[in-house]
Specification:
signal; 17% strand; 23 strands; exonuclease; alpha/beta; Endonuclease, Chain A; 3'-tyrosyl-DNA phosphodiesterase activity; APLF_PBZ; 2 domains; 14 helices; 549 residues; 9-stranded mixed β-sheet; 7-stranded mixed β-sheet; single chain
Length: 549
């Protein structure tokens, strides 16, 4: 959050992200379930310093509507670590696994005499699984069901906005549905008791793995033999910031990538989103895919040794190789701590983004097209690093074999102003989730990029007052006329904020990349959405369709 400003020459692009949201979101698959449960309302005086604080104390409404202006520096600038948005805590922790549950599990098995029959069976199994999920989370009150087909992303339901803004939104309990046999929840901040109350199904899942950094600070964690906890090791100032859920079923696995911490405030007070896709079991003899290798490599990098499922199987990174990810509608862009050299340098951070985009072919209309950055934390950056990072995001060739090039103007960096935070649904306390030291934010090379979060005249998603915790990065070709739609070359959604700790810094004459934190995002490309033209950069909105029913 920064003081109110009005950057010159930005009138045309000031409200870019919210103007693009109608293209990217409103045609997305609608909501499955709209069950209502009593929700905790945190007191406005609480600044949410301790992730476990909210598991121990209730937070009734106070009298003060907003923090005073003098309190804002404390609220917003409470951490000196690049990717430490809301708290300074010990990151040490151990895995605590209780005795295995005796809930039996029937192992799924598949065999296919031919590739054609195998693909047909895979589709049938996935559709059967989706029908089962739809039956357990059927549409209510006129809302449609949640479908995890990877074709776009969903906004989370947000309190404090007009109801039409939530008609195509989703809650966590809509995502975790059906006969889940095991689940992995990775995140930065987790309120376990809130999560167990938010997702009633969670307590009946035979094995649940929580992977997050603050285990040593748990005062009284929920006691359950089905819950396993693990804190990935991190270097100094590094954090485990990834926000991924894996849900295992008899017939496949659901992969969910989010921007929200597993805490009430992120899910109900701010603007957050998720991407999800279901994947079937592998067919006999099916080869590995890039998505599979990236997913397995990430969990291997956390050094998690796995856990035993009630059926006796070992759930670990290699266990994920039993699923078919060949039809993934996104690419994984992840970060893991370390200094990565050689081929591994291109597996992580912005160098992974560079490699993916360099292999894509885009329509010439994307030559030198604009770029949008939108995140909720700014690290200590240099102009040299911004150039390095921008170079990775500008990769890609057009149909003539030429690089589509850098934008003709600086990237449009969407960052809320102090006034936007002050007038948000929760006032200045929302600034705590948008950390940016003045010395990091007020740099000349950044100031010329800034655009506001909200629009003075248009608010299609009704989230002007719901401050962003969402993180999105994209390139697009602006609409040239009312009949010419805005077209998106690519869009990235996930946990990455703007910092070298998250994206990595090139070292030793660009022979290695140094990364401090764990991050996980997905890159959506039209080429993965079965674009009819066979090229990247189609009209992404044309690939969205209403859910069944």
């Amino acid at each position: 959050m920064s003081s109110d400003w009005n950057p010159p020459g930005k009138e045309r692009c000031r409200f870019l992200l919210l103007l693009l949201l109608p293209i990217l979101l409103p045609i997305l698959l609608p909501l499955a379930s709209c069950d209502t449960v009593p929700s905790l309302r945190y007191g406005v005086d609480c600044n949410r310093k301790n992730p476990q604080h909210f598991e121990q104390y209730s937070h009734p409404k106070g009298k003060k509507e907003h923090a005073t202006k003098e309190e804002v520096e404390v609220i917003v600038l409470d951490s000196d670590e690049d990717d430490h948005p809301r708290t300074k805590r010990s990151r040490a922790g151990e895995e605590h696994a209780g005795p295995s549950s005796k809930v039996p599990r029937k192992e799924g098995a598949r065999a296919a005499p031919s590739m054609e029959e195998d693909e047909k069976l895979a589709r049938m199994l996935q559709e059967e699984e989706l029908r089962g999920l739809a039956a357990s989370g059927a549409a209510r009150n006129g809302r449609r069901e949640f479908v995890a087909d990877g074709r776009g992303f969903w906004l989370f339901h947000t309190d404090g906005i007009e109801e039409p803004g939530n008609e195509q939104a989703v809650r966590l309990r809509d995502v975790v549905q059906g006969d889940v046999l095991w689940a992995i929840f990775t995140n930065y901040m987790v309120q376990e008791r809130w999560l167990l109350s938010e997702i009633a199904l969670l307590s009946s899942i035979p094995r649940v793995v929580f992977m997050y950094p603050f285990l040593s600070s748990l005062a009284s964690p929920p006691s359950s033999s089905s819950i396993v906890r693990y804190a990935p090791p991190t270097p100094q100032y590094g954090v485990h910031h990834s926000k991924v859920m894996l849900l295992g079923y008899n017939t496949g696995v659901r992969v969910v990538v989010m921007t929200a911490n597993h805490i009430h405030g992120d899910h109900y007070d701010m603007t957050d989103a998720l991407w999800a896709q279901d994947f079937p079991l592998k067919g006999e003899g099916e080869e590995r895919s890039e998505f599979e290798d990236d997913l397995v490599s990430y969990f291997q990098a956390t050094q998690w040794k796995g856990t035993t499922l009630p059926c006796g199987s070992k759930l670990d990174a290699q266990y994920l190789r039993r699923y078919s990810f060949k039809n993934a509608r996104a690419k994984i862009v992840a970060s893991v701590p370390g200094r990565h050299q050689g081929e591994k340098m291109h597996m992580w951070g912005h160098m992974k983004m560079r490699r993916i985009l360099s292999r894509e072919t885009f329509d010439p209309l994307f030559n030198k097209c604009p770029m949008v950055w939108q995140c909720t934390s700014i690290g200590s950056l240099s102009e040299k690093w911004i150039e390095e990072f921008t170079s990775s995001l500008c990769e890609g060739k057009n149909t003539e074999g030429k690089n589509i090039g850098r934008p003709e103007e600086p990237p449009h960096f969407i960052w809320p102003t102090m006034e936007e935070v002050r007038t948000s649904s929760k006032g200045y306390t929302m600034g705590e989730s948008i950390p940016g030291f003045s010395k990091n934010v007020h740099k000349p090379f950044l100031l010329k990029m800034f655009c506001r979060w909200s629009s003075g005249s248009s608010d299609p998603q009704l989230r002007r007052r719901a401050m962003p915790h969402i993180k999105t990065w994209l390139r697009f070709s602006p609409s040239s006329s009312p009949s010419s739609p805005t077209r998106v070359a690519w869009i990235l959604l996930g946990s990455h904020n703007l910092s070298g700790a998250a994206w990595g810094r090139l070292e030793k004459n660009a022979s290695q990349i140094s990364i401090t934190s764990y991050e996980f995002s997905v890159l959506l490309l039209p080429s993965l959405l079965h674009n009819d033209s066979g090229q990247g950069g189609g009209n992404i909105s044309s690939h969205y369709h209403p859910a069944r029913g």
